[in-house]
Amino acid sequence: MVDWEPYKALIEILSNDLIAAGQELNQPDLQLRRRTLFRAFFAQVEGETSLRKEFALLQHAERQTVFSEPELAMLREEQYVLANNGEVRVQPKFLRLTDNLRFSTFGSPSKRLPKPLAQVLS
I want to staple 40 with a disulfide (CB 3.0 to 4.6 A). Which of 21, 30, 70, 83 is the partner? Predict the structure, then answer.
C-alpha cells in the first residue's frame, strides 16, 4: 500500500506557495513579484504532472493497470539509445512541459487509471 502523505504534503506546499505569490501581487508592482508568481505556477503544474506519472507507475507496479513498454518509458522519462559498442542503453528523456502535461493529463495514463488522483489524495 502506498503512503500518500508525502504527496499530499508536496501538493499542499506548492499550492501554498502559489497562493502566497498571488497575494504578493497586492503589493506595489515589481517585476520580481510577477516572476515569483509565474515560477510558483509552473512549479505547481510540474509537481502535479510528476505526481500523475508517478501514480501511474505505482498503479502499474501494483498490477492495477498495464502500460506498454513505450508508455512506461515515457512515464519514467527514459529513452533507449544505441551505444558505440552496439549495446542498448537507457538515457533520461527530457520532455518539454507541454508534451509532459499533454501525455500525463490527456494521454493513455490518465485514460487507464482506475482511480482519479484527486480521489486518492483526498
Answer: 21
Query: Are 81 and 89 within 8 A, CB to CB?
Result: yes
The total domain count for the chain is 1
Distances (CA, A) of 79 to 58, 69, 95, 110, 118: 20, 11, 11, 21, 29
Rg (CA), the chain: 18
C-alpha cell at 85: 559498442
Give this prediction's pTM: 0.78
Q: 24-45, pLDDT tens digit by residue?
A: 888 887 888 999 999 999 999 9
Question: How is residue 58 written as a grid cell?
Answer: 505505482
